[in-house]
Automatic annotation (TrEMBL):
Protein name: THUM3 protein
Organism: Ciccaba nigrolineata
Subcellular localization: Cytoplasm
Source lineage: Eukaryota, Metazoa, Chordata, Craniata, Vertebrata
Protein family per UniProt: Belongs to the methyltransferase superfamily.
Gene3D superfamilies attached to this UniProt entry: 3.30.2130.30, Vaccinia Virus protein VP39
């Protein structure tokens, strides 16, 4: 099966490397903007779900590298309708059915473990917060949206609709390089023998479905909503599935990027990045982004990895989960952030307790409240620094960043090992960061820059290498 995966924009190469490393049997792999495609045998589907760098998975029905759209809107939409009957649906639907059976087994196993396990407390895996943290739960979507919600400077169609509702995402600064995707969702129904079971009367279950269209490019005569509506109508006639925008069994994906068209069937109901965090803050980072930043630094066994501005702990938790042979230290100056991070660590430990044949040895991670400009760590004692720096929007301000960034880089340079130390720093305040880095050229040497989209904001991950230059010491703790 050809599997497609959406990944954080800018981390396509990182995701492709992980696929090659962890799946091994990949016979073909390609990268696109915010997506990767690879071919694996059906038996490899469980391993695909364990990838850390992918947000969503889908099985590819068919790809068209140079699809010729008609100039007339009615003709172009009619071609999309006719396309449905020509597509090879059989094998992708078999993969979808296999994927469903795997999810059902996992759900049964999870229920059994929760009933018989030592922990009686129900884990909240949907990301809902408890107590005072519930106030921040409503903000998490703003912090974790992908580029589909970005309103571009050009005339590209970018509305996102489901049924008759529509909403626009934030417009970030410097969005000339950001993705301009139009996303709309429309469902229509049709009948299928691919039903995943029978009713009590022995009849084949009629599946419910919807069509989601992602469209980018300003040369199309139709909107995303129109493409999804007409393509969905043809799917309805072909399969006799029943339309349902919210409670659907099958999600058919229609991805259009200029003249490239990819039709697929979703394999994930919600993004895989929602895995480690249960207590959200105002700027919680996606787990997939955190993984990509860590992987850029190529952690080695026994490395000491520090996140000096950890927030809710997304980066160190991801690091401790994926690189348990390293030692991870997380810290923040905000006591509420430290509390949330500690709660997220506890939730992860409880989840590990309920896993089959888990030894529950804990995770190599400590968290502390500290001052970023005066860290209680020895000079040259840290191998890797990975952190999400304040953008100056929801936390702090751009004015404060002009003092904060140079101080941060100085202190991080002090604790980082000369010559071999490295850092991956994420920020949207690129002008301020560039100025601060220019003043720290004797301590930090800039390497790769990865442009990413964070909640509709055009940000960058800077990969830095520590020079051999001795850093200035403010005071000694030992």
């Amino acid at each position: 099966a050809v599997i497609g995966a959406t990944v954080p924009t800018g981390f396509e190469l990182t995701a492709a490397e992980e696929v090659q490393e962890k799946l091994g049997s990949v016979s073909r792999i390609s990268r696109d903007r915010g997506k990767i495609y690879f071919e694996v045998p059906a038996r490899g589907l469980p391993q695909v779900h364990r990838l850390r760098s992918v947000d969503n998975l889908f099985v590819v029905v068919q790809e068209f590298k140079d699809y010729q759209f008609k100039e007339n809107k009615e003709d172009a939409l009619k071609d999309l309708e006719d396309l449905v009957k020509k597509l090879p649906w059989t094998d992708p639907l078999k993969v979808w059915e296999l994927n469903n059976s795997l999810k059902k087994k996992k759900t049964k196993r999870k229920k059994h473990n929760l009933q018989s396990g030592a922990s009686k407390e129900k884990l909240n895996e949907d990301g809902e917060e408890e107590g005072t943290d519930q106030k921040d739960a409503g903000k998490r979507e703003d912090c974790a949206q992908n580029a589909a919600g970005v309103e571009p400077a050009s005339g590209q169609d970018t509305e996102e609709t489901q049924g008759v509702a529509s909403r626009n995402g934030e417009e970030g600064e410097d969005n000339e390089q950001s993705d301009a995707k139009g996303e709309s969702q429309a469902g229509s129904g049709s009948a299928s023998q691919a039903g995943d079971g029978k009713t009590s009367e022995g009849e084949v279950k009629v599946l419910k479905f919807r069509v989601t269209c992602n469209r980018a490019g300003d040369k199309h005569s139709f909107t995303s909503n129109e493409a999804a509506r007409d393509f969905g109508g043809a799917v309805q006639e072909h399969f006799q599935w029943k339309a349902d925008m919210t409670n659907f069994d099958v999600e058919v994906l229609l991805n259009i990027h200029n003249n490239e068209v990819v039709v697929g069937i979703a394999l994930t109901e919600e993004s895989l990045h929602r895995r480690n965090i249960t207590h959200f803050g105002p700027t919680t980072l996606r787990s997939t982004l955190a993984y990509g930043m860590l992987r850029l630094c190529d952690p080695q066994p026994t490395d000491i990895i520090v996140d000096p501005m950890c927030g809710t702990g997304a980066i160190p938790i991801e690091g401790a989960t994926e690189w348990p042979s390293c030692y991870h230290i997380a810290g923040d100056n905000n006591p509420q952030a430290v509390k949330r991070a500690a709660n997220n660590i506890c939730s992860l430990l409880k989840k590990n307790e309920n896993k089959e044949s888990s030894t529950s040895l804990g995770i190599p991670l400590d968290i502390i409240q500290w001052d970023i400009c005066n860290l209680p760590l020895r000079t040259g004692s840290v191998d890797i620094i990975v952190t999400d720096m304040p953008f100056g929007k929801r936390i702090g301000s751009k004015k404060k960043n002009w003092d904060l960034y140079p101080a941060c880089l100085t202190e991080m340079g002090r604790i980082c090992t000369p010559g071999t130390g490295r850092a991956a720093l994420l920020t949207q305040d690129k002008k301020c960061f560039a100025k601060a880095l220019s003043r720290m050229g004797h301590i930090w040497r800039k390497g790769q820059t990865v442009w990413v989209n964070v909640g509709g904001l055009h940000a960058a991950v800077y990969l830095l290498k520590r020079t051999w230059e001795r850093a200035e010491e403010k005071r000694s703790f030992w």
